[in-house]
Amino acid sequence: MPARCQVLGAVPGFGHSVSHSHRRTRRRFDPNIQRKRYWVPSLGRRVTLRVSARGIKTIDRLGIDSVVARIQARGERI
After folding, report:
1. What is the mean predicted confidence (pLDDT) over 40-56?
2. Is residue 62 part of a domain?
3. How many folded domains does the chain comprise?
4. CATH number of the domain residue 41 falls in
5. Which GO terms describe its biological process (predicted)?
6. Nearest to 76 by CA among 6, 18, 14
7. Which residues, 6+ apart, have CB-to-CB distance to 53 below 8 Å?
8. How far apart are CA 49 and CA 34, in angstroms?
9. Is residue 3 part of a domain?
10. Is pLDDT at 19 greater than 90 in this prediction?
11. Is residue 21 part of a domain?
């Protein structure tokens, strides 16, 4: 499964790990992806989403119905 948030579309970032001697090696910054189940009243069922921690806060702020509608408008299957 890709490390991608279904709500925000957050994807891994890339950069360098810098050691004490200042040598640089490539590294990957993954978003904090969680599997979370929500009851969606408009659909009348539970849905499981792969969301980042920031995506969970977005759902709390906007409401699950509006977030699910936005995901479906993008054409993503839930």
Report:
1. 97
2. yes
3. 1
4. 2.30.170.40
5. translation
6. 6
7. 32, 34
8. 8
9. no
10. yes
11. yes
**Nearest alpha carbon to residue 68 among 45, 53, 54, 3:** 45
Which DSSP symbol is given to 1?
-
- Give CA–CA dist 60/72, Å, rounded: 18
For 4, the token pair is 């991608």
Please, are residues 25 and 17 in contact by the beta-carbon 8 Å criterion? yes
* Residue written as token pair 């990957």: 28
Instruction: Give per-residue pLDDT as tens, 53-78.
Output: 999 999 999 999 999 999 999 999 98
- If phi > 0 it is left, if psi is from -120 to 50 it is alpha, else beta; for residue 61 that is alpha
Nearest Cα neighbor of 56 from 29, 75, 77, 38 is 38
By C-alpha distance, which of 8, 2, 3, 19 is closest to 57?
8
Q: Is residue 69 part of a domain?
A: yes
